[in-house]
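seq:
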Amino acid sequence: MLEDKKKKLLLILIITFSVLGISMSFYFYQVFFSPNVLTRGDQPQAFRIPSNANYQFVSNKLFEEELINDAVSFAFVAKILDYQELVKPGLYTIQPNMTNLELVRLLRSGNQTPVRITFNNVRTKEDLAEKITSNLEITETQFLALIQDSVNIRKFGFEEETIMSMFIPNTYEVWWNTSPEALFDRMYREYQDFWTENRKEKAQARGLSLTEVSTLASIVQAESQKADERPRIAGVYLNRLRLNMPLQADPTLVFAMGDFSIKRVLNIHKETDSPYNTYRYTGLPPGPINLPDINALEAVLNAEDHNYLYFCAKEDFSGYHAFASNLAQHNANARRYQAALNAAKIY
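struct:
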């Protein structure tokens, strides 16, 4: 009788442990291999982990953004894989229906998704700071601090007036959490890649340094949005430089005044005492008056060879210009344009 009871007890224990083992195995399987990620509309979702974030921040953010269904099971897998000690900042693309194992492995790996930064139509350092950091962790203030830091600027071979030349407008892929210093390093590499030997030779043939090319290109860009006439405008300014004539470029005066709302440069503006006043001072101004795009840079490098010394906006407001090789012809063009401005009541 006692023997039968022992057998029954043993059988019960075996069944109990078997059930527990199966249950635990099923639970572990569920925890590791069942989907635990919820994304909006079953679409991939970006998840950003700031620099210096800890595991608790990551866990809370995942739950608060409703990216995980069960925080406890996620925490269990994170603990097993030691993710709590291996948090890596960055932007990660979380796929719908990921398991805890897949999610923890992704975040633990540091396998970020790069982001794109695009900057163009930039006039000032503040404009550049706003556009270049709009999709990054770093702030405008952090970027501005570096671009205005003379020690940092000189590391790259530039001055405060010429540092904007280092930034070639384009679209670039970078890490979301790239540091301000790393961003500067990347932009310098892009600058070096842009200035091929062929382009350097063209600049030298024009008698210009690389920063002077950028400076002149910024003026050309401000004068015309018409890509097909920019090389002709560049040729006018190169002719003036060779003859030591003042460039008399209205956009440089607007820059000197710091008032980009000025539509019509007047004689009073020409009295401004600034190295950017190309009516008063010959040669190029100290640096770019905006961030010239690649088209404007190429327009200077591939400027037209002609004998024009003047140009004036056409009176049809097409955005194109009338060119002249002598002052009398230019004055006639200017009178037509001024009459059109007066008729349109543009002051």
